[in-house]
Amino acid sequence: MSHAQNTPIASLAPIQLPAGTGTRLWLLAMVLLWGLSWPATALALQSVPPLWLAAIRFGSAAVCLFVFVGLRGQLRLPPRADWPIVASIGLLQMMAFTGMGMIAMTRTDTSHAVLLAYTTPLWSLLMGWAMFRQAPSRAQALALAVGLSGVALIVSPLEMDWQRPGVVTGAALLLGGAICWSAVILHIRRHRWTTPPLALAPWQMLLATIPLTAIACAVEGSPAAIPMTPHLLQLLAFIGPVATSACFVISAEHGRRISAFAMSNFTLGVPLIGVLASVFFLGNRLSAVFLAGLTLVFAGMVLAGMAARRRA
Please, which domain of life does this record's source organism belong to (predicted)? Predict the structure, then answer.
């Protein structure tokens, strides 16, 4: 309890939450918004081509963050030491992961998409082993075996109809995007930051927006044909300014106030909320095979987080 809380003035002020409680409430809101962004994206994809949707998402979020960072007096060109992490996050996590994921969502159910996309902790273990000779411990090996068996179950013919056009390609794109994100996670762990992550975020989003826009123009044509209805504008406002820029601010401001293990536990809620929201808003049906795969993937990610904490 701080000194101010013992003063008579503090007793007259509104009741304040403990420091940790406020952070956790913000992070819970972030997880909820990120999870809900998956069915919102699926609905927007009914009117907007996937690459254009990715470009609009990061373009609108970049504008919001440029304004936010500018108002805080932190807007400046990234120093040369931070260019690699700007390129890594902008091109691999934002452009590749999101672009591939949105294309995949036009070919597979949202519940499958969100779960496969969030298998990044498993691929991070494998990539750390392959790239940096970080042999997994027994606990990490168990986490990999459990989690990857769930992935194999979900993408198997028992759950996915391989005869339906685009289904296998969609699953491959989702797993490829997750691997790209895993590479970024490994880079973030080793990067020596000279600029706060929040100050770099608008530049990363701008870097993702430019090639996404160019590719969308070449592949999907002019955006003039997109029907900008009030409903679609609401979805775009939620996907970009709210679920991307606002959530990034929450993550940067409050994620650093808790341990990496606690933060990883919070983010586990994103695919769970995404799956449940896809059932509620989109009518996705969850088969017994999918639920078994979901359980194994989640168990693998929880075990991976626990093993990483013990190893650290």
Answer: Bacteria
Number of structural domains, the chain? 1
Write down the pLDDT at residue 6.
38
Is there a domain that residue 64 lies in?
A: yes
Domain annotation covers residue 114? yes
What lies within 8 Å, CB to CB, of 94 at 6+ separation is 58, 204, 205, 207, 208
How much is the CA Rg of the chain, to the nearest whole Å?
20
Sole residue written with tokens 């007259």: 12
Domain that holds residue 89: 49-311
Give domain status of residue 233, yes or no.
Answer: yes
Distance, CA of 76 to CA of 69 (rounded, Å): 9
Residue 309, H or E segment: helix 288-311
Is residue 38 within 8 A of residue 47, CB to CB? The reply is no
Tell me, yes or no, whether 250 lies in a domain.
yes
For the chain, give the number of residues.
312
159 contacts 289 by C-beta, under 8 angstroms: yes
Half-sphere exposure in the Cβ direction for 311 (13 Å, CA): 16
Would you give the DSSP letter of residue 110? H
Q: Which of 183, 84, 189, 188 has its CA nearest to residue 124?
A: 183
Question: pLDDT of 93-119, one tens digit each?
Answer: 999 999 999 999 999 999 999 999 999
Nearest-angstrom CA–CA distance, 155 and 108: 11
The tokens describing 100, both together, are 């591939």
Taking only the tens place, the pLDDT of each residue in 125-180 is 888 888 887 788 888 899 999 999 999 999 999 999 998 999 999 999 999 999 99
Contact 102, 240 (CB under 8 A): no
Mark the ranges of the chain whose per-residue pLDDT is less than 70: 1-19, 260-261, 311-312
